[in-house]
Amino acid sequence: MLRATDLVFAHKGQDAPYHFSLEARPGEVTAISGASGSGKSTLLDLLAGFLTPTSGRLDLDGADLLPLPPETRPVSLLLQADNLFEHLSARDNVELGLPKGTPRAERREKVAAALADMGLAGFDDKPASTLSGGQKQRVALARTLLRNRPILLLDEPFSALDDETRQAMRSLIGALCAAQNWHTILVSHHADDIAALATRHYRLENGRLAAAQN
Q: Which range of residues forms the domain containing residue 171?
């Protein structure tokens, strides 16, 4: 179980601090919705370690995560922006999700399979700079999923995708989350994404997460 207990944080100049408390179970998707500027990205940054709360607790199966810097937290994060290296190929961008020291043949096999899962078979050598916005987002998603860490944070992961691809990616992520027992937190404005994926749903209002809707 991933559990955040009254994580308190305020940006400079912010009058009232955020207070975040939530639970996310393994193998399930927990959705976070709320108006723009309500603090959804701040919550993800706290979970990932990019921001430090002034108080509160964050633990995974009882282990305290707050002392860990972002690079050592058991977290994969996919942002709304794809964050690819434009000069690298799709293959090279996806390979960045694999652990250092992974044998070359295994890297090639896993990357090719991940790109195929995203509907991008044969795109291995294409520079990121030549891809469409939707293709870039799928490459970034493939890289994120290959990290295979216990906590998966998704910030509007389908925003650049057309409806058909969006449905396919939702199905793929749902199946992987269940199979890998990831603790997945999905931030989305789209009710269809939440309805299709989420087991638990929090709404962020007035700096706090509303009671979960099961």
A: 1-74+149-214
12 plus 107 within the same structural domain: no
Separation of alpha carbons 105 and 61, rounded Å: 34
Q: pLDDT tens digits, the chain, 214 residues: what are they?
A: 999 999 999 999 998 999 999 999 999 999 999 998 899 999 999 999 999 999 999 999 999 999 999 999 999 998 776 678 999 999 999 999 888 888 988 988 999 999 998 889 989 999 999 998 888 888 988 898 888 899 999 998 887 788 888 888 888 889 989 999 999 999 998 889 999 999 999 999 989 998 655 5
Q: Are 32 and 186 in contact, with CB atoms under 8 Å apart?
A: yes
Q: Give a yes or no: residue 79 inside a domain.
A: no
Residue 183 and residue 211 share a domain: yes
Residues 13 and 67 in one domain: yes
At a CB cut-off of 8 Å and minimum separation 6, what does 201 contact? 30, 31, 33, 194, 212, 213
Domain check: are 167 and 129 in the same one? no
> From the CB of residue 99, how many other CB atoms can be counted at a distance below 10 Å?
9
Domain check: are 132 and 103 in the same one?
yes
Prediction pTM value: 0.88
Instruction: Read off the tokens for 117.
Output: 């899962």
